Amino acid sequence: MTEGSRVAVITGGTRGIGLAIARRLANDGFDLVLSYRGDKEVAEAAGQELSSTGRKVHVLASDVADADSAGSLIEHTVNEFGKIDALINNAGITRDTLIMRMSEEDWDTVLTTNLKGAFLCSKAAIRPMLRQRSGRIVNMTSVVGLVGNAGQANYAAAKAGLVGLTKSTAKEVGSRGITVNAIAPGFIETRLTDVLSDEIKETLLKTVPLGRFGTPEDVSGAVAFLLSPDAAYITGHVLTIDGGLFMA
Ligand code: NDP
To answer: For this structure, is 155 an active site residue?
Structure first.
């Protein structure tokens, strides 16, 4: 265990928004445990890059949707690092199609990864956090979970479910010094938005008051804030990072 350093688990921390969060937290002095599902090459590259920061970084293939894997991820963290200060439930997938064409499998896969995965990892992490009487959990939802989106009924339902999970968990564990918050990004430049045509991008951009897509760094800065002492009195909150796309 690295004396004095904080320890964060980031599910899906090997690319996209998760990797940006990992870079930021490494820079802020966290030791890291990153999980991924199957892209070993990308995961190893991320692990190598982050290890060069001097932080202790473990990268594990671990499916958040599987209870044993989720449990092992947290167990590994506590065994190897002695504690878990933060859990970022970031792993997420899409299987977009209109509801009339959506298979049961498309529904189940998205709900199981995006929603049940966060439940399983939170459940495993809360036990050591309760013992420590401290901890931070951040759930990665989406503005789509707040406003809905045609072609994403499964994803929107999972992300809306994460908001309920966030608020309920926050109420359960608040008295033990654990905060639970959610971040709802809008359009962020990752593989997800790379595939959109210029025409669609232009149409989407017209709906964003700040006039640009977000970057993974726009999201990672907010995660760093929620893990910082400045956010000690914030729990059960859903923070939108969307350039003003959705205003409640
Ligand atoms: P990416 O597709 O770039 O990365 C997803 C990461 O999650 C990868 O590391 C992937 O591993 C991992 N992952 C996927 N399924 C599992 C699983 N079952 N178990 C463990 N790890 C898994 O996603 P983004 O960075 O774009 O998105 C990150 C989060 O932010 C998601 O929850 C997404 O819904 C949310 N979000 C993204 C937005 C965007 O515009 N990009 C907008 C709003 C929310 P592997 O590489 O092995 O597949």
So the answer is: yes
Distance 150 CA to ligand 1 centre (A): 20
Question: Which residue's alpha carbon is at the smallest distance from atom 11 of ligand 1?
Answer: 36
Report the nearest-CA residue for atom 34 of ligand 1. 92
> For 147-158, how does the pLDDT look when each residue is reduced to its tens digit (9 = 90+)?
999 999 999 999
Judge residue 72's burial from the number of C-beta atoms within 10 Å of its C-beta, 0-12 exposed, 13-18 middle, 19 or more buried: middle
Ligand 1 near 11 CB (within 6 A): yes
* Alpha-carbon gap, residue 30 to 198, rounded angstroms: 38
Q: What is the pTM of this model?
A: 0.97
Residue among 66, 59, 78, 79 nearest 18 (CA): 59
Encode pLDDT of 79-137 as tens digits.
999 999 999 999 999 999 999 999 999 999 999 999 999 999 999 999 999 999 999 99
Residue 146 tokens read as 């707040």
Separation between Cα atoms, residue 67 and residue 45, nearest integer Å = 27
DSSP bridge partners of 138: 88, 181
Q: DSSP string of 94-110?
A: -----GGG--HHHHHHH
Counting from 1 in the atom list of ligand 1, the atom nearest the Cα of 140 is 32
Burial of 149 (0-12, 13-18, 19+ CB in 10 A): middle
